[in-house]
Amino acid sequence: MNEGERLTELAKRRGFYFPSASAYGGASGFWTYGPQGAALKSNVEDAWRDRYVVKEGHQEISAPTVMPEPVFEASGHLDGFDDMIIECGECGATHRADHVVEDNTDVEEAESLPNEEVMDLIAEHGIECPSCGASLAGEPVENFNLMFETNIGPGSSSPGYLRPETAQGIFVEFPQLSEYARNQLPFGVAQIGKAYRNEISPRKSLVRVREFTQAELEHFVDPEEDEPPLAEVADVTLPLYSAESQQADDGGQRDLTVREAVDEGVVASDWVAYYLGVSKRWYERIGVDMDRFRYRQHLAGERAHYASDCWDAESEVDGDWIEITGFAYRGDYDLSKHAEHSGEDFTVFKQYDEPITVERATVDPDMSYLGPEFGGDAQRVADALEALAERDPSAFDADEVTVEIDGEDYAVPVEQTNFSVDEVTESGEHVRPHVVEPSFGVGRIIYTVLAHAYETDEVDGEERTYLSLPPEQAPTTVGVFPLMDKDGMDDLAREIAGDLRSAGLSVTYDDSGAIGRRYRRQDEVGTPYCVTVDYEALEDDTVTVRERDTTEQKRLPVDGLAETLEQLNTGELTFDDL
Ligand code: GAP
């Protein structure tokens, strides 16, 4: 069994996650988090919320997962959110064309190549269908849109889509959200929720699924003025694998501090660099192994339609690098598109300290001329003239001015535009914020944390498996056991378990089987501490507390046990301190 298979076996056996609806044969790409997994997921989400909402001072919202079609027409997902698909001519199975290339050649990021090149590589390398072994050479590589479609209400007149990213639920509400932020940039809005993608070939359990949880932050900033608090993370070392390094023959990963990465221009945006620094610390906190972690920049052909630059946090499992988070500079792409398609105002009004006087070029086109001349296009011509006057007043210097709409030229005599340049006093300006987006895949982070925590050693001559999870992330904080289910040990153990639960700790009570078996069960789900009530406890009100990784045991008084365990859980105390 490789690392991923070993993990999935443990995950199913111990209740972290398992394929959904298997009683009915299931559907590929859908997984249920069991009791341990749901608790771990909620701990990861709490740690994310603590870092990216509370500590950053951002807001959090919860938007619907189904949204009407115009949202995704505007966002570009209906046109551009595609993966490459190839269908086997023999058995009809469909595959991600870029993945079959990556699995069978040395090509690493086939997603960044044009479809024709991927088709050529498949033919050149004689790649066969992973399902039936027939040759895939000559089969067309096409685009497949990943959106799940549905109908809103009865009938089909109101199509909707399951959101492919939580981000759109934030962008469409920008006008309200901006008000709640008192129209003051910068401000950030976060959301943790489900996203859906009709993946061509789901694989590796939680790594590529069709329904998954994202934790996304959309940070709205004034591109001219706002700067991140870079000093807070300037010394954090980033393992960077830039696009340039990926394309160079001798290129490799470089370890640079945030400050160096910005000064050398390796990371172009200070905001992206800031979040790379913040996130490196956060990944360490939740248990990602920093020797199996890097930041990789997207190659040009790989970037999503909205991103001008993007870095992925990647973790290594089984020798493969998995994208766990994307850090994208989305510019004003999303807000501009939603403004254009909805006609609403997606800007922030920025008040100047003092009003200023400026020269402003305006037009007031004569519609009695434009109407007969351009018919149904007259209003669009008028709007284009207005935009041109603002952008390039010198275009009105000649007798005639030309605007282009959808590739067609419209010439208008300047005198019909009523062009003028006037002095106006302005108290502020409308700014279209830029968006910096750290976007985390919660399932892939859980998969990484579990894979990196998976350890084996030998205890009492037997192999032991344990999950070395940080106490803050562990699904259960304490296992409480009576040594034997008699003589009052059970009563005292139940009383202690109750007290620990009242103090807010997550507790498992276990009185079945030999004590060694009970320790192993807790080790396998990563419980950092186990408390055992034995005969001595009945005499002197002390219990043994065992630490998971070292299996070391110490005797502690029952009085104050909850506080001590809480301090161990938060890292205020270490086991050695006891
Ligand atoms: N809003 C930006 C966005 O959605 P993305 O890189 O497409 O960017 C962000 O997705 C994160 O969501 C990824 O880094 C990954 O962790 C997770 N993710 C994306 N597709 C996934 C899938 N099919 N299964 C599991 N996680 C996925």
Name the descriptors.
578 residues, ligase, Signal recognition particle alu RNA binding heterodimer, srp9/1, 9-stranded mixed sheet, binds glycyl-adenosine-5'-phosphate, Rossmann fold, glycine--tRNA ligase, 19 helices, alpha+beta, tRNA-synt_gly, ATP binding
Describe what you observe in this structure.
It is a single chain. This protein has about 575 residues and is of the alpha+beta class. Among the domains are: about 70 residues, Signal recognition particle alu RNA binding heterodimer, srp9/1; about 100 residues, 3-Layer(aba) Sandwich (Rossmann fold), CATH 3.40.50. It is about 30% helix and about 30% strand. It contains 19 helices and 28 strands. The strands form eight sheets. Strands 3-10-11-21-16-15-14-12-13 form a nine-stranded mixed sheet. Strand 22 and strand 23 form a beta hairpin. Glycyl-adenosine-5'-phosphate binds next to strand 11, strand 16, strand 21 and helix 15.
- Work out the helicity level: 25-40%
Task: Report the count of strand segments.
Answer: 28
CATH topology of the domain at 476-577: Rossmann fold
**Mind summarizing the main beta sheet?**
9 strands, mixed
Assigned CATH class of the domain at 476-577: Alpha Beta
What's the CATH architecture name of the domain at 476-577? 3-Layer(aba) Sandwich
SS class: alpha+beta
CATH superfamily of the domain at 476-577: Anticodon-binding domain
The protein's oligomeric status is: single chain
Poorly predicted runs of 5 or more residues: none
Family: Belongs to the class-II aminoacyl-tRNA synthetase family.
Keywords: Aminoacyl-tRNA synthetase, ATP-binding, Cytoplasm, Ligase, Nucleotide-binding, Protein biosynthesis
Main location: cytoplasm
Domain Aminoacyl-transfer RNA synthetases class-II family profile: 5-471
